[in-house]
Amino acid sequence: EAGVVQSPRYKIIEKKQPVAFWCNPISGHNTLYWYRQNLGQGPELLIRYENEEAVDDSQLPKDRFSAERLKGVDSTLKIQPAELGDSAVYLCASSPEGLAGGETQYFGPGTRLLVL
Amino acid sequence: GDSVTQMEGPVTLSEEACLTINCTYTATGYPSLFWYVQYPGEGLQLLLKATKADDKGSNKGFEATYRKETTSFHLEKGSVQVSDSAVYFCALSSPARGSNYKLTFGKGTLLTVNP
User: Hey, is the C-beta of B114 within 8 angstroms of any chain A C-beta?
Assistant: First the structure.
């Protein structure tokens, strides 16, 4: 079974440029998460989707970040314009639909972004 | 809000040494607890989990017991190997908006095992 796929793996851009990250979750997983992991820190949730609906985007900086999950499968996270402080690893995760708190989230390898 | 505090790293051990990485949490209700591991160049992988008090999660020789009275979930292994070198994250799962749950992570502990 294929895992969570993310691309690109690495991205270097200059500040004020736009950037986009793509994620394809595990087949059949209805819930998709985007996290940001700063250097030396644990991942922090940016947005969570249940199918096409963004059910928790409270931590997403909406002035410059946007996300979409058309058709409830793959997802794109965009930053426009990027700032120096956006340098981080952006992780995508997915989980099967469920109400139990013990559900496992499956993570992709992440996209490492460097803003110069 | 919910939070996870884990032992600061880095931790450096010799092969076959005993490992303990401390993790304590603050949460309302009864969260599920997880240890995730991140090997160099790879994404986070679930190592083990426990969903209720006194449960013990175990995998690959690692163990952790959900202690409600001390709000802890310490990771232990009796004999580490070089291949265990990685970053270990403690996390808790708590109710979030909508019908699902969200993970709150600790800062991670880098473990290096020398031959």
Answer: no
- Residue B29's pLDDT is what? 78
Instruction: Collect all residues with Cβ–Cβ distance below 8 Å to A62 and sequence separation of at least 6.
Output: none
The tens digit of pLDDT for each residue in B40-59 reads: 888 899 999 998 899 999 99
Is residue A86 within 8 Å of A63, Cβ to Cβ?
Answer: no
Query: For chain A, which residues lie within 8 Å of any Cβ of chain B, measuring from their own Cβ?
Result: 3-4, 31, 33, 40-45, 48, 50, 53, 55-56, 58, 91, 93, 95, 98-110
- Do A43 and B96 count as a contact with CB atoms less than 8 A apart? no
Residue B98 reports pLDDT greater than 60:
no
Which pLDDT band holds residue B30 (cuts at 50, 70, 90)? confident
The pLDDT assigned to B9 comes to 85
Q: Of B28, B21, B27, which Cα lies nearest the Cα of B90? A: B21
Cβ-defined contact of B102 to A107 (cutoff 8 Å): no
Instruction: Name the DSSP letter for residue A40.
Output: T
- Whether residue A49 contacts residue A37, with contact meaning beta carbons closer than 8 Å, is answered with no
Phi, psi dihedral angles at B89 (to 5 degrees): -120, 130
Closest by Cα among B103, B47, B43 to A25: B43
Mean pLDDT by 10 residues, chain A (116 residues): 90 97 93 92 92 88 93 94 96 78 83 96
